[in-house]
Write a structure and sequence with these properties.
Mean pLDDT: 88
Structural class: alpha/beta
Order of helices and strands: HHEEEHEHHEHEEEHEHEEEH
Number of helices: 9
Distance between the termini: 34 Å
Number of strands: 12
CATH class: Alpha Beta
Bound molecules: ligand PAZ
Largest sheet: 8 strands, mixed
Radius of gyration: 21 Å
CATH topology: Rossmann fold
CATH architecture: 3-Layer(aba) Sandwich
CATH superfamily: CoaB-like
Shape: globular
Strand content: 15-25%
Helix content: 40-55%
Length: 311
């Protein structure tokens, strides 16, 4: 497995923004280290979000893509920030972004304000809503500079190379790091060294293409990059009959601390958090979205994980 991963990285087209990514991850960690040095150790969530594309040609005209909108990762990022985590948000370019409140479509902020405002009379409610929301928007820039780092990918090659940089950088964060793999990562790809340079021609009619399996990086993360980090992966299926079986299998296979099982049709209303000891069914119920109970559940699991170390 490690050899396959190594040959993936060796043959991948070099990440154009590599130096910028490394520098911004280091700056972000410096702030974390400075806070830790004065006893304010904050947890860091690495949230991956959106789908990776698989290019079919080097001078790329066509790609294989997938359905992921990035809304799970975006909403979860809001909840991690609200739970006082610092967040590295590794997201697909142009996928859903958090704080959609700015566009009049809030999840967390709106829910919070509505709840707060419900305690006041109607006239006060409007004033309070407007003031608090503009205050929030004013402050968010400053808050985000220290607590949030956004990194963008489009292709599978970019995604895995950035993940390697971030993964390895998280080693010193130990159990305070949580990897939350909500991105839909391609299972198959065209290796760079066997990829056509130019646009694939259609003159010969039908076409057959051989795709290689994408090496699994979760094992590398657990073994080498950040062995102490709390790791949560997601398992999506369309066949409910195999969903839990597959989730349990990836829990053991990759040494995850939790696997979130979700089915395509119901994923916005129901998920099952599979851990070694318990399986928890979470439903949206009266919450603004399913990510609220999900993030709360995982934050609590990481707290238990941190306590185990102290015991
Ligand atoms: O991005 P989105 O909100 O549309 O969907 C989220 C999701 C279904 C991609 C995510 O919950 C997930 O299951 N990711 C892992 C998919 C997989 O590779 O099995």
């Amino acid at each position: 497995m490690e050899q396959e991963a190594q040959s993936f990285f060796d043959s991948a087209p070099p990440l154009r923004c590599r130096d910028d990514v490394v520098a911004s991850v280091n700056r972000f960690l410096d702030i974390w280290k400075a806070a830790s040095a004065i006893g304010q150790t904050r947890r860091i969530a690495i949230v991956t979000s959106g789908g990776t594309t698989v290019p079919l040609e080097r001078r790329c005209v066509r790609v294989i893509d997938n359905f992921s909108s990035g809304s799970r990762g975006a909403a979860s990022t809001e909840y991690f920030l609200a739970s006082d985590y610092a967040v590295i948000f590794l997201h697909r370019r142009q996928a859903a972004l958090f704080f959609s409140f700015a566009n009049g479509d809030a999840t967390f902020v709106k829910y919070f304000l509505e709840d707060l405002c419900s305690h006041f009379a109607a006239r006060c409610r409007i004033i309070l809503y407007k003031n608090v929301s503009s205050l929030w928007m004013d402050q968010s820039g400053a808050v985000l500079q220290k607590k949030l780092l956004k990194l963008e990918f489009t292709t599978l090659f970019e995604y895995l190379q950035i993940l390697e940089i971030v993964g390895a950088a998280m080693k010193p964060v130990g159990r305070h790091a949580m990897f939350y793999f909500a991105a839909a990562v391609s299972d198959f790809y065209v290796p760079w060294n066997s990829m056509m340079e130019h646009k694939i021609q259609s003159d010969d009619g039908s076409m057959t293409m051989q795709l290689a399996p994408v090496p699994k990086m979760l094992g590398l993360l657990r073994k080498h990059w950040a062995p102490e980090a709390f790791c949560v992966s997601f398992k999506l299926e369309t066949d409910v009959d195999i969903l839990l079986k597959k989730a349990r299998s990836s829990l053991c296979k990759y040494g995850m601390h939790a696997v979130v099982a979700n089915e395509l049709e119901t994923r916005k209303n129901k998920v099952v958090v599979v851990t070694r000891k318990v399986e928890m069914v979470l439903e949206k119920g009266d919450c603004p979205d399913i990510e609220l109970p999900l993030v709360n559940c995982l934050v609590a699991r990481q707290t238990m994980y941190l306590q185990q170390q102290q015991a």
